[in-house]
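Fold it.
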Amino acid sequence: LAGLEDNYSSGDLFLQIIKESQQQHGLRHGDYQRYRGYCSRRLRRLRKTLGFKMGNRHKYIGKKVTVEMLSDNRYLLLVLMEAERAWSYAMQLKQEANTEPRKRFHLLARLRKAAKHSEKLEKLCESPRVDAKTKLEAQAYTAYLTGMVEFELQEWKRAMEAFNKCKTIYEKLASAFTEELAVLYRQRVDEISPNIRYCAYNIDDPNAIKDLMQMRLTGGGGGMMAEKLESLITQARTKQAATMSEVEWRGRTVPVKIDKARIFLLGLADNEAAIAQATNEETKEHLYETLLAECRDTIQAVREELKTEAKQRERSSDADSGKVSNLQFLHSYLSYIKLCTLVKRNESMAHTLQAKLKEPESDENKRGPRPQDLIRLYDIILQSLAELSTLQGLEDDHTFQKEVSLKTLVYKAYRCFFIAQSYVLVKKWSEALVLYERVLKYAKEVQSKAKSLNNSFRDLPDIQDLIAEVNAEKYSLQAAAILGESNTDETAEVPAQQQVKDNKPLCDHLEAFHLDPTLVGKQPNLPLFFDLALNHVAFPPLDDKVEQKGKGGLTGYIKGIFGFGS
């Protein structure tokens, strides 16, 4: 295989070779050191195969690839691998530079080396022996590495020009080749787009911050670039936070003096909009986690200020010590945001699990979602709602308490529904039926309480859908319960809940479902009715009818056929 992969023809494309090598040798997992080792080994094999040795074990003798050597296309591959080896070493150093800043100097030196090799490759490709598409690829590769060097040097304008040149060439190549190759070029364009927007922001492009927010939403720019994006967005909000001085919530205006709280509240609307526009569950979950992490950090900062405020109050013995202070109310507001975000995140996860629960299992060996998973999510939601009702400063807000109470009833109904579903799976029909009735009871309470609250169902799951689903499940379950009881063995023990008999006769509750094991077993204990009145009934005499039939003979039979005498 080592000999086969070192074969190179003019039809092979640089980007295709690079991507295949990177995916197979470490970069799938971000292991630049492994990829660098692969590049070194491949270079050694190429030099040995081509007889292009750099001296011997005692002395180094440098050699250059010239245009005259291009009768063998593998010399281009040799220069390409030299550039890739230098680039991979630079990326390895970039990871290590997070903890060892001095390695940044070595990083820049290796990036410049990679760019120098790419310029040599571009110059070799100017030869008439090289076709047009390979020339374009060499130009794009050089522009990419040059942009990387300028990017690390924070020369934003020059970096942006180089990346734009690279992007333009790859977009043209994508439109000129088959779909399979076009995907590779488009991937490269997607990789450099975050860098272009980052450069634009640093050049003070007014639209760049919107582009960065959109890129964060779509999940663009992974790894180290994602960290830079978060830092950049925070910096942008910090500049805007100076204009924010107060926030209004539940009819009370609260001054915001803590910078961390200002930055968080300023970006709250953007974060919520990003979550609403997220295209896939993975991106949405990442955005929820980011928002919750920022919220926890902000709450911690406010908590530290609250400690200082409490000490000052102890010294001054303020007369209004019983009143909730502005800082405490701000803490309640931030806690409200955190708890509501937790509820929304778990509801989103529950919605995804419900959809998967309805899908047929494709792999029997793989464990799919179960009702117990949803019960756990609704437990967390109910716990968050319980904490909401205890927030300081909102104890006397009756409207708020009614809203929380209504939400609690809705989620209790859904939790109860999935508990019933878990009992159905183990064929405990009676328990499941009782729980379904409890769900309907909760649903009726929700409908009666919601009339007094406007927009009460805006952020809640649809209770009407739940009622319809419960009714459908209930009738199916009643049939399954009867069939299940009739198929059980006579000697099977009957649960204690089912042994309670109703003294009402069966005819008095025909419309109500009642699971009585004595009625649905193999030997049902049904009331028997005997018609004793039949023995005392006097029937009319039929002698004349019988006589006529006997005396008719053949003539009567013929008359009967033709209808005579009737």
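Residues 281-316 form the longest helix (36 residues).
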